[in-house]
Amino acid sequence: MIENKNQSRTSLEQLGEFGLIEHLTKDFPIQQESTIKSVGDDAAVLSFEKEKVVVSTDLLIEGVHFDLAYAPLKHLGYKAVVVNISDICAMNAVPTQITVSIAVSNRFPLEALEELYEGIKLACNYYKVDLVGGDTTSSQTGLIISITAIGKANEDEIIYRSGAGDNNLLVVSGDIGGAYMGLQVLEREKQVFLVNPNSQPDLSMYDYIIERQLKPEARTDIRQLLKDLDVHPTSMIDISDGLSSEIFHLCTQSKVGCNLYEDKLPLDPQFINTCEEFNIDSTTMAINGGEDYELLFTIKMEDFEKVKANPNLTIIGHTTQESEGLHLITRANTKIPLKARGWNPLANNEEE
Amino acid sequence: MIENKNQSRTSLEQLGEFGLIEHLTKDFPIQQESTIKSVGDDAAVLSFEKEKVVVSTDLLIEGVHFDLAYAPLKHLGYKAVVVNISDICAMNAVPTQITVSIAVSNRFPLEALEELYEGIKLACNYYKVDLVGGDTTSSQTGLIISITAIGKANEDEIIYRSGAGDNNLLVVSGDIGGAYMGLQVLEREKQVFLVNPNSQPDLSMYDYIIERQLKPEARTDIRQLLKDLDVHPTSMIDISDGLSSEIFHLCTQSKVGCNLYEDKLPLDPQFINTCEEFNIDSTTMAINGGEDYELLFTIKMEDFEKVKANPNLTIIGHTTQESEGLHLITRANTKIPLKARGWNPLANNEEE
């Protein structure tokens, strides 16, 4: 519904691979001291010295991870960077560089890629990360984006998934579930648009959750916040596939169980209202919906006082002994087994 | 023609994304001291201290970069790693880690991915690089492989494309053109197979050039060789898209011209014989065919004696002043302008 039919079209073939990379990456300034050589050679050259290097990578496929019917290319570029930076944040590290590879079919003119790179540039500027490499090629169907993010941290700052102990507090940043409900609204509007292309939806009452879906942010601020609070989490992960799925990862790797409290889940009023409108259970959505890119971590019980009143952080439960398993404690004080129902990108692989 | 119709099939959906990653990466031992944390967290953690980090990335798409009709998955996995390691070699660095992301359609059972990872593992073992991360997801058509390679080198060891001076010698490792002619043989056999599926081609007379195409090697040995010869190249690049195209990159970035000598090109007899059989000009193939993954570099004239008798290295020309341009000096001693006709992956993007 956002597509502009009158856009000018420049064929990618005219530019060639190297002309294209050069054109798309020419306005990316170097912002990190650790970047010695950026785009333009066989490889980028980086310098970290005493700090450790953290590396994460993601592959985003049109029709699996995004739908260009409602994700504008600029937002998509921004989000693709954020998703990867979020993984660096989940190690309690500072994001410093990214590489971006794209494959596109001939459906995409140069102007579309410029828009995509506009979004990538916005994110690079906002998060102060350098675009240092990549690859452009053709695909037979649609758009494929592969991003590798690099970050740095001192060894003693890095937080793994496996460090949670028994009786740690389970903490989440921000609020959860919004991105998933934003997607539900966009999916609904897409169906309306397909029936009546002239409809002009008023989405203002969903602005927060739609932004959570289309233009999420990575919690690069949490590292400093925790430093200021003098709290060093015992384990950490980011919420990409859904809270329950991430809790399973943390607990499995840390060999602990956990109790999650339904009444503690941080939910935005717009998220709750939209769940009511869609007549679906907000707890189920908050636990299983993904793409919030908030951080989930555990802290020692003794750090409770430092965290409890912070508006950015919510204590949502605590770890237990591994043998006790993972449970949700409902508002009615019933203890039910927690299930990981996060998004499975492999459950959606019908060849067209 | 290599497809095994009786292979067993395990659906990827049953395993889920994390089960799949765990299954595919479980037999990859850590071989590099610099790998602190490998697969299994939000990001890998690496330690390089005084050495600089080099990073390169590539995206390989079925139908654009490879054809599963004649590229067995194991070879493809091996080659995908080699292609990326070659970029690290082109910086005169030591490859240390890779991340591998794949997207597959439901056409691929688990057993196919196991074969692909068999090849990846072979390459990791042979080149002593650690697989430290990745992503698996679904695609709507075919197989997509995205690899990021990481390497290390001291700052004064790193060689850029831009360092060639006027009157440097142009040197290439190994021989060139073979991979491209190997592809021509495979393409021909595929056509024969399509007409007569019972044909059993005898490819033994093409074994070298077919291996160059299906299972190339990265020249990790050249770094040590140059050290032993006490030669420090002024510029370097690897030959992925074709010699002429790479010469253009080196010369453009170094702001020099060059004379390339037709009679100096290192060609394997099997390559020459096959060109004759196909009735095509071997020089044209050697200059424009890609995927040899040999190294092309420039050295100072004073290093001539150190290099001239080395069986691994061939001096194929010299740089000139930029204003003189780039030329091929033919066997008949005619000077003709060199053209970059390297492979353009964007010239092949018809959406199906």
Automatic annotation (TrEMBL), chains A, B:
<keyword id="KW-0460">Magnesium</keyword>
<feature type="binding site">
    <location>
        <position position="58"/>
    </location>
    <ligand>
        <name>Mg(2+) 1</name>
    </ligand>
</feature>
<dbReference type="Pfam" id="PF00586">
    <property type="entry name" value="AIRS"/>
</dbReference>
<feature type="binding site">
    <location>
        <position position="87"/>
    </location>
    <ligand>
        <name>Mg(2+) 2</name>
    </ligand>
</feature>
<feature type="binding site">
    <location>
        <position position="87"/>
    </location>
    <ligand>
        <name>Mg(2+) 3</name>
    </ligand>
</feature>
<feature type="binding site">
    <location>
        <position position="87"/>
    </location>
    <ligand>
        <name>Mg(2+) 4</name>
    </ligand>
</feature>
<keyword id="KW-0479">Metal-binding</keyword>
<feature type="binding site">
    <location>
        <position position="58"/>
    </location>
    <ligand>
        <name>Mg(2+) 2</name>
    </ligand>
</feature>
<keyword id="KW-0067">ATP-binding</keyword>
<dbReference type="InterPro" id="IPR016188">
    <property type="entry name" value="PurM-like_N"/>
</dbReference>
<feature type="binding site">
    <location>
        <position position="241"/>
    </location>
    <ligand>
        <name>Mg(2+) 5</name>
    </ligand>
</feature>
<comment type="function">
    <text>Catalyzes the ATP-dependent phosphorylation of thiamine-monophosphate (TMP) to form thiamine-pyrophosphate (TPP), the active form of vitamin B1.</text>
</comment>
<comment type="similarity">
    <text>Belongs to the thiamine-monophosphate kinase family.</text>
</comment>
<feature type="binding site">
    <location>
        <begin position="134"/>
        <end position="135"/>
    </location>
    <ligand>
        <name>ATP</name>
    </ligand>
</feature>
<feature type="binding site">
    <location>
        <position position="161"/>
    </location>
    <ligand>
        <name>ATP</name>
    </ligand>
</feature>
<dbReference type="GO" id="GO:0009030">
    <property type="term" value="F:thiamine-phosphate kinase activity"/>
</dbReference>
<feature type="binding site">
    <location>
        <position position="343"/>
    </location>
    <ligand>
        <name>substrate</name>
    </ligand>
</feature>
<dbReference type="InterPro" id="IPR006283">
    <property type="entry name" value="ThiL-like"/>
</dbReference>
<dbReference type="GO" id="GO:0005524">
    <property type="term" value="F:ATP binding"/>
</dbReference>
<protein>
    <recommendedName>
        <fullName>Thiamine-monophosphate kinase</fullName>
        <ecNumber>2.7.4.16</ecNumber>
    </recommendedName>
</protein>
<feature type="binding site">
    <location>
        <position position="240"/>
    </location>
    <ligand>
        <name>ATP</name>
    </ligand>
</feature>
<feature type="binding site">
    <location>
        <position position="42"/>
    </location>
    <ligand>
        <name>Mg(2+) 4</name>
    </ligand>
</feature>
<comment type="pathway">
    <text>Cofactor biosynthesis; thiamine diphosphate biosynthesis; thiamine diphosphate from thiamine phosphate: step 1/1.</text>
</comment>
<dbReference type="GO" id="GO:0009228">
    <property type="term" value="P:thiamine biosynthetic process"/>
</dbReference>
<feature type="binding site">
    <location>
        <position position="56"/>
    </location>
    <ligand>
        <name>Mg(2+) 4</name>
    </ligand>
</feature>
<keyword id="KW-0808">Transferase</keyword>
<feature type="binding site">
    <location>
        <position position="238"/>
    </location>
    <ligand>
        <name>Mg(2+) 3</name>
    </ligand>
</feature>
<feature type="binding site">
    <location>
        <position position="135"/>
    </location>
    <ligand>
        <name>Mg(2+) 1</name>
    </ligand>
</feature>
<keyword id="KW-0418">Kinase</keyword>
<keyword id="KW-0784">Thiamine biosynthesis</keyword>
<dbReference type="InterPro" id="IPR036676">
    <property type="entry name" value="PurM-like_C_sf"/>
</dbReference>
<feature type="binding site">
    <location>
        <position position="57"/>
    </location>
    <ligand>
        <name>Mg(2+) 1</name>
    </ligand>
</feature>
<feature type="binding site">
    <location>
        <position position="291"/>
    </location>
    <ligand>
        <name>substrate</name>
    </ligand>
</feature>
<feature type="binding site">
    <location>
        <position position="42"/>
    </location>
    <ligand>
        <name>Mg(2+) 3</name>
    </ligand>
</feature>
<feature type="domain" description="PurM-like N-terminal">
    <location>
        <begin position="40"/>
        <end position="152"/>
    </location>
</feature>
<feature type="binding site">
    <location>
        <position position="65"/>
    </location>
    <ligand>
        <name>substrate</name>
    </ligand>
</feature>
<keyword id="KW-0547">Nucleotide-binding</keyword>
<dbReference type="InterPro" id="IPR036921">
    <property type="entry name" value="PurM-like_N_sf"/>
</dbReference>
<feature type="binding site">
    <location>
        <position position="117"/>
    </location>
    <ligand>
        <name>ATP</name>
    </ligand>
</feature>
<dbReference type="GO" id="GO:0009229">
    <property type="term" value="P:thiamine diphosphate biosynthetic process"/>
</dbReference>
<dbReference type="GO" id="GO:0000287">
    <property type="term" value="F:magnesium ion binding"/>
</dbReference>
